[in-house]
Design brief:
The complex is a heterodimer of chains A (about 200) and B (about 550). The radius of gyration of chain A is 22 Å and the shape is elongated. Chain A is mostly helical. Chain A contains five helices and no strands. The relative contact order of chain A is 0.14. Chain A has one domain (about 30-205): Up-down Bundle (Four Helix Bundle (Hemerythrin (Met), subunit A)), CATH 1.20.120. Chain B has about 550 residues and is mainly alpha-helical. Chain B has one domain (about 30-540): Cytochrome C Oxidase, Chain A (Up-down Bundle). Chain B contains 18 helices and four strands. Chain B has helices spanning about 1-5, 25-30, 35-60, 75-110, 115-135, 155, 160-190, 200-235, 245-265, 265-280, 285-300, 315-330, 330-345, 355-375, 380-385, 390-420, 425-450, 465-495, and strands at about 420, 495-500, 525-530, 540. Chain B has a two-stranded antiparallel ribbon with strand order 1-2. Chain B has a two-stranded antiparallel ribbon with strand order 3-4. The longest helix of chain B is centred in the N-terminal third of the chain and has 36 residues, at about 75-110. Chain B is globular, with a radius of gyration of 23 Å. The chains are: A mainly alpha (about 200), B mainly alpha (about 550).
Chain lengths: ~200, ~550
C-alpha cells in the first residue's frame, strides 16, 4: 500500500472530481441508512417468527389464513412500480425527460394503488373477520405492525417520489447530477425487497 | 473517479475550506463543526453524569440501613432505573462516540469535518432533548423495572415508562445517525496515504464501534417501539396473558444491549491505545493484533446476547454455544491487555494524570473482565444472576473500565480542546479519591452477591448491613473525586498552563496542529507515510509545514 508522496495529488482538485466524491459520500450514507432500516424490519420480523413459533400453532386458534390471491395481485402492483421506477431513472440518464416523467407518474400511481389495496385488505379483515391491531392477540399485532411499517415506508416513498418529480421538473437535477433520483430509486427497490420478505412469511408460509 | 477509486485518497470534499461562521449561535450553539459538536456532547453528557451520580448517591443513602426508610420502595425502583438508563445512554455512550469520537477521530485521520456535518448537528441536538424527556418521566411516574425494563413489570410501571421508551428510542436514532456518519467518514475521508494499517488505534476503535451503533441501536429501537405501542395502544407483544412473550423482549433488548456493552468499551480501548505509547515513549506493542482484536470483539458481540438470559428459560443446547462464545471474547480482550502491558514494559513512563488513569483502567478493567468470564459459565451464572455480584461486575467494566478511560482521555485531550492543560496536582487528587473510592465501593458487592444479596431491592437482610455502609461511605469518596475533576476542568479553562500544540509529545495528527485547532483543521490535508507510533523515527507526515504553533514546548511539559 506504500505510495510515494510525489504521487499524492495536492492543490485544488478539479470540480468534476469533487462532485464525484460528493455523490460517493452521500451514496454510502444512504446505503448505510437502508442497512439500519433493514435491521429495524429484521427485528420485528424476528419478533413475529418468535411469537408465531411459541407453541399455539399458526394461525392461532380462531383465525384463518390470510387471503393469498388478493395479496398476490397487490404484490404484482408493487413490483410493477419497481420496474417503472427503473425505466424512469434509465430515461433520465438518457435525457428523455418526457418519458422519465411518464414513468415516474406510473410509479407513483402504482405505489398509491398498492396502498389502496392494503387499505382494502385491512378493511376486509376488520369487517369480515374482526381482526384488529390491538384486539386480536399476537396475530393482529404482528400482521398489522409489520405490514403497517411497510405501508408507512411505501407512503413515505410515494411522497418522496412526488417531491423528486417536482424537483426534477423545476430543474434541480441534470442528466449527470441526480443523486436524489438515484436515492429515490434505491429506496423504492428497498421497499419492494422488504415486501418480498413480508409476503413470504405472512402469506406463503 | 480515478482518484475516488483509489483506496488511500478520500479527501475530495474535505479539500473545501468552508468559511467560518461568525455569529455566536451558528458557531457555538447550532454548530456544524465536529470539534464544537464533540465538546457539546462532552459538556452535556457530564451534566447528565451529575444527575446520574446524584441518583446513585440517593441509592447509596437508602442502602446505608438494612431497613432503609430514606425513600419509598417504589421511588427506590425509579432511582436505580433512571440511574442506569442515564449512565448508559446519556453519559458513557455519548461521551465515547459523540464526544471524544467527534472531536478526536476526524483530526486523527486528517479530515476537515465528518462526512455529513448537518446530520452530526442533528445527532447532537436529539441527545439533550431525549435526555430531558427521560428525566420528565419522574413527573409522571418513572419506570421501575431497571434500565433493562423487562416485561411484565415494565408493562405495569407508571406512564413514565412509555416516556422512557420514547426517550431511549430518540437517543437510538441519534446513535444510528452518528454511526452512519462516522463509518462513512472513516472509510472515505482519510488523508492521502492513511491506509487502514496506518490509522491510529482510536480510529480503529471508532471504526469497530460505528457499525455497532448503526445495527444494534436499530434493533433496540424496534424493541422500544413494540414496548411503546403495547403500553399505549394495547397491542400485545410481551404480555403472556395475551399470547405475547416476556422472553421475546429479553432477546430483542440484549441483541442490542450486548453490543452496546462494546460500544461503551471499544472507543475506550482506543483511547488507552493512544495514551500508553505516548507516555511510555514506545511504539504500541502489537499494533495489528490490537486492531484485529477490536474488530473481533465487535463481531463476537453479536453472538453472545443470550448469556444474559441463562436463568430466563432457554434450551440447554443453546446455553452451551452462548457460554463458549462469551468465553471467546476473553481472547481478543486478553490480547489487548497483554499488548498494553508489553507497551509499558521497558518504556520511559511519564506518570501524568492521564497515564495514571490509563494504568488504573488496566487494573480495574481486567478485574471486571475476569468476573465476566466467571459469569459466562452457566453453573456460576445460575448462582450469581440477579445478585450484587452482577452489580459489582458491571460497575467494574463500566466505571472501572469505560469511565476511567474517559477520565484518562479527558486529561489527555483537554489541552487540545481548550488550549490549556488541566491542573496535574488536582488531577492526581482526583485519581486517588476516585480509584480508592471506586474499588472500596464495588469490591464488597462481589461477596455480598455471592452471599445472596439480590440487586434492585430497597431493604435487605441485616447481615449485609456492614458492607453496604462501607460501600456507601466509599461511594462518597468516589463522588468527591469526581467533584474535584469538575472543578478542575472548569478552573483550568482560565488558569491552566498554556498547552501549545503538542504538550505530551504525541505523534498522531491532531497534535501536529495548534490547540485548539483552527476551524478548518488542516490548511493543507497532510500526506501520511506510516503508522504514527514509532517514536524513534521522524513524524510520518508531509504537508504540515507551517501548521505548527511557533511556541511548541519541549515534549512532555507536565508530569515528570
Amino acid at each position: 500500500m506504500a505510495i510515494s508522496v510525489s504521487q499524492i495529488p495536492h492543490g485544488d482538485p478539479n470540480v468534476d472530481q469533487l462532485y464525484a466524491e460528493t455523490r460517493d459520500l452521500r451514496l454510502n450514507g444512504f446505503l448505510l441508512f437502508m442497512v439500519s432500516d433493514l435491521v429495524l424490519f429484521s427485528s420485528i420480523i424476528f419478533a413475529y417468527l418468535y411469537l408465531r413459533n411459541s407453541g399455539q400453532g399458526w394461525p392461532p386458534p380462531g383465525f384463518s389464513r390470510l387471503d393469498v390471491a388478493f395479496a398476490a395481485f397487490n404484490s404484482v402492483v408493487l413490483f410493477g412500480s419497481g420496474v417503472t421506477m427503473h425505466f424512469a431513472l434509465e430515461n433520465w440518464k438518457h435525457g428523455n425527460f418526457i418519458k422519465f416523467a411518464n414513468w415516474m407518474v406510473a410509479t407513483i400511481v402504482l405505489g398509491a394503488g398498492f396502498l389502496s389495496g392494503q387499505g382494502y385488505e385491512y378493511w376486509t379483515l376488520y369487517q369480515k373477520m374482526h381482526v384488529s391491531w390491538s384486539g386480536s392477540g399476537i396475530f393482529g399485532a404482528s400482521f398489522f405492525t409489520l405490514t403497517g411499517m411497510h405501508g408507512f415506508h411505501v407512503f413515505a416513498g410515494v411522497i418522496y417520489l412526488t417531491v423528486l418529480l417536482l424537483q426534477a421538473t423545476n430543474g434541480k437535477y441534470t442528466q449527470h447530477k441526480h443523486f436524489g433520483l438515484t436515492a429515490g430509486t434505491l429506496y423504492w427497490h428497498f421497499v419492494d425487497v422488504i415486501w418480498v420478505l413480508l409476503f413470504s412469511i405472512f402469506y406463503l408460509f | 473517479m480515478a482518484v475516488a477509486a483509489a483506496p488511500t485518497h478520500g479527501g475530495g470534499v474535505a479539500d473545501h475550506i468552508h468559511p467560518e461562521p461568525h455569529s455566536f449561535i451558528r458557531r457555538y450553539i447550532f454548530s456544524i463543526d465536529h470539534k464544537i459538536i464533540g465538546i457539546q456532547y462532552i459538556v452535556t453528557a457530564f451534566l447528565f453524569m451529575v444527575m446520574g451520580g446524584l441518583l446513585a448517591e440517593l441509592i447509596r443513602v437508602q442502602l446505608m440501613n438494612h431497613s432503609g426508610t430514606f425513600v419509598k420502595p417504589d421511588t427506590f425502583n425509579e432511582l436505580y432505573s433512571i440511574h442506569g438508563s442515564t449512565m448508559v445512554w446519556l453519559v458513557i455512550i455519548p461521551l465515547l462516540t459523540g464526544g471524544f469520537g467527534n472531536f478526536v477521530f476526524p483530526l486523527q485521520i486528517g479530515a476537515r469535518d465528518v462526512a455529513f456535518p448537518w446530520l452530526n448537528m442533528l445527532s447532537f441536538w436529539i441527545f439533550p432533548v431525549a435526555g430531558l424527556m427521560l428525566y420528565s418521566s419522574f413527573l409522571m411516574g418513572a419506570p421501575v423495572a431497571g434500565w433493562t425494563e423487562y416485561p411484565p413489570m415494565s408493562l405495569l410501571g407508571g406512564p413514565g415508562t412509555s416516556m422512557w421508551a420514547a426517550a431511549i428510542f430518540l437517543i437510538g436514532v441519534s446513535s444510528t445517525l452518528t454511526g452512519i456518519n462516522f463509518l462513512v467518514t472513516i472509510l472515505k475521508m482519510r488523508a492521502p496515504g492513511m491506509t487502514f494499517t496506518r490509522m491510529p488505534l482510536f480510529v480503529w476503535g471508532q471504526l469497530a464501534t460505528a457499525p455497532l451503533l448503526m445495527i444494534a441501536t436499530t434493533a433496540l429501537g424496534a424493541a422500544l417501539a413494540a414496548l411503546f405501542i403495547e403500553r399505549q395502544f394495547g397491542v400485545p407483544f410481551f404480555d403472556p396473558t395475551r399470547g405475547g412473550s416476556p422472553v421475546l423482549w429479553q432477546h430483542m433488548f440484549w441483541f442490542y444491549s450486548h453490543p452496546a456493552v462494546y460500544i461503551m468499551i471499544l472507543p475506550a480501548f482506543g483511547m488507552i491505545s493512544e495514551i500508553f505509547p505516548t507516555f511510555a515513549r514506545k511504539p504500541i506493542f502489537g499494533y495489528k493484533m490490537i486492531a484485529f482484536s477490536t474488530v473481533a470483539i465487535a463481531l463476537l458481540s453479536f453472538m453472545v446476547w443470550a448469556h444474559h438470559m441463562f436463568t430466563s428459560g432457554m434450551a440447554p443446547f443453546l446455553q452451551l454455544p452462548f457460554m463458549i462464545l462469551t468465553m471467546f471474547i476473553a481472547i481478543p480482550t486478553g490480547i489487548k491487555i497483554f499488548s498494553w502491558v508489553a507497551t509499558l514494559w521497558g518504556g520511559k513512563i511519564h506518570l501524568t494524570t492521564s497515564m495514571m488513569f490509563a494504568i488504573g483502567f488496566i487494573a480495574t478493567f481486567t478485574f471486571g473482565g475476569l468476573t465476566g468470564v466467571y459469569l459466562s459459565a452457566v453453573p456460576f451464572d445460575l448462582h450469581a444472576h440477579g445478585t450484587y455480584f452482577i452489580v459489582a461486575h458491571l460497575h467494574y467494566v463500566l466505571v472501572g473500565g469505560s469511565l476511567m478511560a474517559i477520565f484518562a482521555g479527558m486529561y489527555f485531550w483537554y489541552p487540545k480542546m481548550s488550549g490549556r492543560i488541566m491542573n496535574e496536582f488536582w488531577g492526581k487528587v482526583h485519581f486517588w479519591l476516585f480509584f480508592i473510592g471506586f474499588n472500596a465501593t464495588f469490591i464488597p458487592m462481589h461477596w455480598l452477591g455471592l452471599l445472596g444479596m439480590p440487586r434492585r431491592v430497597a431493604v435487605y437482610d441485616p447481615q449485609f448491613q456492614f458492607w453496604n455502609q462501607f460501600a456507601s461511605i466509599s461511594s462518597f469518596v468516589m463522588t468527591a473525586g469526581i467533584l474535584v475533576f469538575f472543578i478542575n476542568a472548569i478552573v483550568s479553562l482560565r488558569t491552566g498552563k498554556k498547552a501549545g500544540a503538542n504538550p505530551w509529545g504525541a505523534r498522531t495528527l491532531e497534535w501536529q496542529i495548534s490547540s485548539p485547532p483552527p476551524y478548518y483543521n488542516f490548511k493543507k490535508v497532510p500526506a501520511v507515510l506510516a503508522a504514527p507510533y514509532d517514536f524513534a523515527e521522524p513524524l510520518p507526515y508531509r504537508g504540515l509545514e507551517g501548521e505548527l504553533d511557533p511556541n511548541v514546548p519541549a515534549p512532555v511539559a507536565a508530569g515528570h
